Automatic annotation (TrEMBL):
The keyword Oxidoreductase applies. It holds the Pfam family Pyr_redox_2. It comes from Natronorubrum texcoconense. This is Pyridine nucleotide-disulphide oxidoreductase. One of its GO terms (molecular function) is oxidoreductase activity.
């Protein structure tokens, strides 16, 4: 159990996080929140800008490009593997819970759900957010051919996704972060990490420990000194501010959970090899069987020629 999973009280919400939009920005944010132990649902059935692309040729990692259907399959597979629930429904409205904390998310077809935090990751439509804040701040009016048109203000959120509405984050691919899919994914990642760090602070982690990164390391890089939990306890204690107000029991809980989290990022050589093979096999699931068989026949033919 991660430090994010232990709150000392049962959650009053259906989800810790609801992401509105399942493109590169939304899925990237969801991967990071779900991997951090937050119950995350991604609603995806709106107008997606990336689905208007005929073929994507500049998304890093695909030297011959990739079709949008396959990319979407990979993104959603990744999000679900990380722990996200993909909900194929369109969000029509967000409202504050009566208590003022959290949101009611109302979709077009399914039942409404509640969420502690919401990440808006849709580019074209912000109408579902009307009423959450002063509309003069959230929406702006433009004059086009003599007619006034109102649009969501693309500069409403901070660069890290925070907004004037508590617990509402914007990962929408707008402006400088928006017109390339890889930039949208990067912005979604930043917003996801921002949200995770906010939760870590809320749950009692002092500022130096609230900083979050998701990174796997080789176990052989862990020397004997840092294999000892007592050394990690010393390190964690040095990161605490002198004026922290954590009770001893909560401090010990946070300390041990943080040590568990950090040690779990070190992988043995055998585990690395297992994950490499598993990762390759998962990629094959998104490639047409006939292409795999064709490649296998070509490999067999090359091997036979090499043996002559």
């Amino acid at each position: 159990m991660s430090a994010l999973e232990s709150t000392g009280a049962e959650t009053a919400f259906d989800h810790d996080v609801v992401v509105v939009g399942g493109g590169p920005a939304g899925c990237a944010a969801g991967v990071f929140t779900a991997r951090s132990g937050l119950d995350t649902a991604i609603f995806d059935r709106g107008r997606s800008s990336i689905q208007r692309c005929a073929y994507l040729e500049n998304y890093l990692g695909f030297p011959a490009g990739i079709d949008i259907e396959t990319l979407y399959g990979l993104m959603h597979d990744h999000a679900e593997t990380a722990g996200c629930e993909i909900v194929p429904d369109l969000v029509e409205s967000l409202e504050r819970v009566e208590s003022g904390e959290g949101f009611v998310v109302t979709p077009q077809e399914g039942e409404s759900v509640t969420a502690r935090r919401v990440v808006a990751a849709t580019r074209y439509d912000g109408e579902y957010m009307r009423g959450l804040d002063d509309e003069a701040a959230m929406f702006e009016t433009h004059d086009h051919d003599g007619e006034e048109h109102e649009h969501f203000d693309k500069s409403y959120a901070e660069s890290d996704g925070r907004t004037p509405v508590d617990d509402l984050f914007i990962a929408s691919p707008y402006g400088d972060t928006g017109y390339q899919a890889s930039m949208a994914a990067g912005h979604g990642t930043r917003v996801g990490i921002t949200l995770v760090e906010d939760v870590r602070r809320e749950r009692g982690l002092p500022e130096p420990l609230a900083n979050h990164y998701d990174w796997m390391r080789r176990e052989r890089e862990l020397d004997d000194e840092w294999r000892d939990r007592s050394r990690w306890r010393e390190y964690v204690d040095t990161q605490l501010p002198d004026d922290h107000d954590l009770e001893e029991a909560r401090l010990e809980e946070i300390r041990e959970q943080e040590i568990d989290r950090r040690l779990a990022t070190y992988l043995s050589d055998d585990e690395i090899e297992r994950r490499i093979e598993h990762g390759h096999r998962r990629l094959l699931e998104h490639i047409e069987d006939e292409l795999i068989l064709e490649a296998a026949r070509e490999i067999d033919a090359e091997r036979e020629m090499g043996g002559e």
